[in-house]
Amino acid sequence: MCFVQLVLILLTVVFGAQRADAGLFSEKPIFLDTQVSGQPPANDGRRTFPVLSKDDRVLIEVFVGGLARGLTSGFTLAFVDDNLAFSMNFEIEKFEGVLTSEVGGRGAVISVGGNPASVRAPGYLGLLTLKARRDIPGNTTIRLKQSVTTMFDSETGDIDELDVSSAEIRFVTGQAFEITLDLDTSSGNQARTVRNGVAIGETVEVQVHGAALDLMVGYILRFDYDSTMVAFESFLPGTVFSAAQTVSPEVTARSVEVTAATFGGALNVSSGLLGRMFFTTQDSFVASTTIRLNTAEMLRSSEFVSAIPRSVTLNGVVDFDGDNVPDFRDFLLFAARFGETTSSPDFDIRFDLDGDGSIGFTDFLILSNAIEATREAPP
Ligand SMILES: [Ca+2]
Ligand SMILES: [Ca+2]
Ligand SMILES: [Ca+2]
């Protein structure tokens, strides 16, 4: 028998035997995915997370891929812990899912067991909570360890090794957050940045919505504007905080800076309403003015990170047919749209003059006032 034949026979024995013994979970990929709070679990590849301060938590969704269905009464998640790099940084607090462990893990390992539970595509196993034992430095990476990360197949009785090559989370510094300004006064983020038909003396609400806010302690926002056109009126912190603390806004001739923070520990939500700004148009407000959010900073895990600047535009003129004069043609165009809302197909925000998300009677009053004002204006 030549060497090649011997190798082939050995391979057949080894792999043939393994295949016969392997359960459904054998060599299936296991995924770690940071949770977006308030959203159902999704294996959407969120493999990075902002660095943690001591006692901060990160919630990690755990999935087993490539699986139609399976039955398990236990699995072990073991993190790579060379030089105790994992267990000195993190404590495994608990696992909640198809099987649950409230007592957490020991060192870098958690074993979760119970009555056989079924796992179905997309293979969601549950939520792993890690708590930082100390400030986690940027670029710290945690990953599961091959051969000791296993899952018990209750149907075949096999302890299957999972493929851990995608089971990794990296903690990063300087991870930006996102801001959207919204002139639609209805709740939620309609991302509306233009309003027409704004009257002189009207108070306009600018909602500031945030995303990727994980672990935020608080924020600073600076708006710049033309103070001959608008004046800053007031600021209200948003619902993203359960209890927000704030300091009086700092108002200059052309800007306003506001701040809000939570004293109750870093934020455990990813997105929400940061605050509402109110501006009142001045007597010289005529055609159009822009309010710019030029600086948006937040504090998370002892570092300041920023968001991309945004702006909103207020237009004084009410006009739909493009001749820059409010008249009966605009009234007819408006009538054809009356009653539509942001959920209507082809909703046209130009007709929603008060920015409440629907084309209604108050919008009609704004339009009719504009038509009458044009008529009264000197030629
Ligand atoms: Ca809104
Ligand atoms: Ca017109
Ligand atoms: Ca409206």
Shape: elongated
Q: Overall mean pLDDT score?
A: 90
> Total strand count, please?
23
SSE order, as H and E? HEEEEHEEEEEEEEEEEEEEEEEEEHH
Structural class: mainly beta
* First-last Cα distance: 109 Å
As for the number of domains, it is: 2
The main sheet comes to: 8 strands, mixed
> Over all CA atoms, what is the radius of gyration?
29 Å
Percent helix: 10-25%
Task: Characterize the structure shown.
With 379 residues, the chain is mostly beta strands. The chain has two domains: 3-172, Immunoglobulin-like, CATH 2.60.40.680; 178-376, Immunoglobulin-like (Sandwich). It has four helices and 23 strands. Strands 13, 15, 17, 18, 19, 21, 22 and 23 form an eight-stranded mixed sheet that branches. A hairpin with a 4-residue loop joins strand 9 (150-153) and strand 10 (158-161). Helix 3 (328-335) packs antiparallel against helix 4. The N and C termini lie far apart (109 Å). Mean pLDDT is 90; it is low at 8-20. The structure holds calcium ion (3 copies). The site of one calcium ion (CA) has 8 residues, from helix 4.
